Amino acid sequence: MNQHPPTLLYIDDDAALARLVERGLTRRGYKVIHAASGEEGLERIRRAGTQNSADGCIDVVALDQYMPGLDGLETLEQIMAIAGAPPVVFVTASQDSSIAVTALKAGAADYLVKDVKGDFIPLLHVAADGALRQAELQKAREEAEAEIHASRDRYAALAAERELLLREVNHRVGNSLQIIASLLHLQANSAGQEEVKAALTNAMGRVAAVAQVHRRLYTSQDLKSVVLNQYLDSLLEDLRRSAEGNRMSRLTVKAEPIEIDPDRAVAVGIIVNELVMNAVKYAYPDGAGPIHVELTSQGEDLLLAITDDGVGDKVKADPRSTGMGQRIVAAMATKLDATVERDPAHSGTRVMLRFRRTPAAPDKTNNAAAG
To answer: DSSP letter string over 312-352?
Structure first.
């Protein structure tokens, strides 16, 4: 709020009436400056906008309509074109309401009819007070809107920076995991014992499943979700290139373009890697055969199925097996809150996992009871 008395610029060619306005408004706490023409009033308003103005700040203008040279409406139009112009109360002796409408449309804050005796001065005081309050409210609204826009800009800049950092982190993590997978691949190729080779190959597949998620994130516009059909296509292409030679040539994928969060995508990828590799090793003892990966939506649930047409339950247990793959599948299924079951009607092996598209909300009742 201003500490000095509000300054009113009274623009009117009637000097006697101007003195009445000055006396009347000075008693009511205003400082009044008189300009005898529209041109002089405009010059004073322009000077008030500079630091060297002798009149100081002009807070509100009272503008007469009928003056030689520029009339009130012409002067009002030029005042409104000045940046940061004070509010204007339009004053005229005319009873023509069309002048009032024109003045208000041109930007006047208020309008009143004057008389030569100065009886309108109390009304001018009320109108000037109202125009000042209206200007303060408008200024406060503009400042609030400017702060809102500035806050939005700051938030957008921070969000863009955060997204860039996340993309860079995912890029670096993805590269590091890819290096680890490559090292495991090299080590597997140079391993002399088949069980060591198999263990390293399995480990490489698990790392690749995680690396593919990060690769998806830093090459995508969306850092919050992974499109599963694209992810599974890339993951299984990695498996075709890296594992068991040509025995992966009949691996097929059929998945819907379903989006889930990255953590759950990692769990899905690791499960697919374990079950596919298990089928590669055990489903077809005499050679290669088809292995199918399917992902479909069923309402709010997702169904993941890994199917082969191999020997099924007739496969002999491998005495060298550690059961690590089964434990990993069980752990990832728990992470997804998924049910895992085999299809007993299928002649080969068909493992199905059913889980919700989005994680189930935590049970607040149980949590409260536990606390």
So the answer is: GGGPPPPTT--SHHHHHHHHHHHHHT-EEEE-TT-SSEEEE
